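Input/output pair, single chain:
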Amino acid sequence: MPQSEDLSIWNPVSLPRPESLEGRCVRLEPLCAERHCADLWTGVLGHDEVWDYLSEGPFGSEAGLRQAVQAKETAPAAYFLAIIPKSSGRADGYASYMRVDPANGVVEVGNILMTPSLQKTTAATEAMYLMAQHIFDNLGYRRYEWKCNANNAPSRRAALRYGFTFEGIFRQHMIVKGQNRDTAWFSMLHTEWPARKGAFKAWLDPANFDADGRQKQSLSQIAANLL
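Output:
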């Protein structure tokens, strides 16, 4: 069990650095307003619902979105990555490593924006896989967190699908856009990652998709079989 792990020789891990992550279907690269804002604006235009559970937006103009993306570029406490499906070559979303605690090996994936064209795609799942793999395999973190508005049912389902464990509700945790937010907390531990990684890799294998790109087995089914 993780509680009995010998941490007498534990050393703090490194902060995530601005670097690209490459997969079969998607590429992640450091978010840049100059390179990515036009694509993001095209993707969210007419889809204000994508901002419902984020702390900002919707934006009335591309200039407003650009200002927000520029702030993310230089944010001192978060590391934002643009999500670029190889099928489109466009930035169709972004996500960040945030609330980074290298002394204890804890980091959260959050502030996730996925345009409608990215949602429920193989590229979206692979993006989340690549971010988790980088944190656990390359940087050696012990705990990976996912938090969302407790009312955000799609985000809660996504967390479970990706292999995070539900830990509970923090009541009256935040005030967002003038509304109370109860926060649902999820986590994945480094001891759990090998099995989660195996499920991701099996789901992402081209053999798991038919000629029309439809999955043969769901990620949840594969994970259940492995566990």
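The beta strands are 21-22, 26-30, 78-85, 93-101, 106-114, 143-149, 165-176, 179-189. The helical segments are 33-44, 62-73, 122-138, 153-161, 193-204, 219-226.
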